[in-house]
Amino acid sequence: MSMPLITEIIYCVAVVVWLAVLGTVLFQYVRNPRIFGTTRLLLLVVSIDTCRNLFENIYFGLFFSGKYGFLPAAFAESLGNPEFVFVPKVVNVAAGCFVLGILLWRWLPKAVTERRLSDLLAIDLGMLATTDGLTALFNRRHFEELARAEWARFQRYGRPLSLLLLDIDNFKSINDRFGHDAGDLVLKAVAFICKTTKRQIDVAARIGGEEFVLLLPETDEADAETAAERLRKAIQAHTRTLPGGNLEVTVSIGVAGASQAMSGFEVLLKRADEALYEAKRTGRDRVVRAPKPVLENFSVAAE
Fold this sequence. Notes:
2 domains
């Protein structure tokens, strides 16, 4: 196979390849007309570069076809004229500058902006998935994930761990007497006190309509009871200052401490729930510590 024929085949293949690229870009754009942002700009860049390559390969393909006798010699004479031969290079440079301008002045800024918006959206979605929309505390699902991780740490190292289960007294009557807006205000106020009085390592969450929970790592049951009493008084004092009338808001709190005899975090939560029920049953507006299970008392006596 002669060198002229090889050269001609190479130019033909190049033209076919770039036509395929341009056709693919146009086909995808027609099929997805709602493509926007950086994707559209990248398609434009690819199209410009493809057209540049097509022009250059067709120009020199015709020139060499005329020179090697595959086409009339007039093609080689005309396209080889110094007044025209620099045109492909001018087109090449102009297309390169235009593409560079798009990349620097349009694509890069838009790409950075879209990435920033994407990160913010991911953060917002993460917040929506883990927090309660009204109080901005953790929701029940995320609290349970954190609690199980803390329970695993408690089982491994044997460090103290306690739980406070809190319920707003007579919350339904607040909604009935003052309206749901007042009820929402009370929920936000209780959440605010839980958030501002807890330590950084503590975990606060809203796990029900008017039910809140605080997980207290590195805290034994006696200290947890003291913290619960302090929290009860803080909520009572803070809610008295709420606008819209005299809202007598009180809370009942159940306190439970973890022990190695418990089979899982669910047992600790159940113990706190039983203590909360006792606080409700005996008059509300109080803190009740869960009694030691019979088996634990027996073990202590045996020792």
